[in-house]
Amino acid sequence: MHSHNSAPDTFDRIREAIEAELPGATVNVEGGGGHFSIDVTHPVFLGKSMLQSQRLVLSSIKHLMAPPNAPVHAVDSLKTRAPA
Hints:
Elements: H1 7-21, E1 26-32, E2 35-41, H2 50-61, E3 74-81
Parallel strand pairs: 2-3
Antiparallel strand pairs: 1-2
Helix pairs in contact: 1-2
C-alpha cells in the first residue's frame, strides 16, 4: 500500500509539467516512493539524440526534483520517442 506517499498526485504533477513543456505529448508515469519511470512520446524528439530528448523532459520536471521537499527523488527510467 502507498498510503504514506502521494504517488498518484505526483504522477499528475509530473505529467502536467511535461505536457506544459511539450503540449500534446503522450506521457506515462509509473513508480512510487520518490522513484519514477517516465515514458514520453512527442514529435519534438524526431531527429534529436536520446540525451537531447531526455534533457528536454528532465528540464520540464526539475522543479519537482528540487530540495528540500522534492516529490521526485529519482527518475529510474526515462524513455523518449517520436510517434510512429
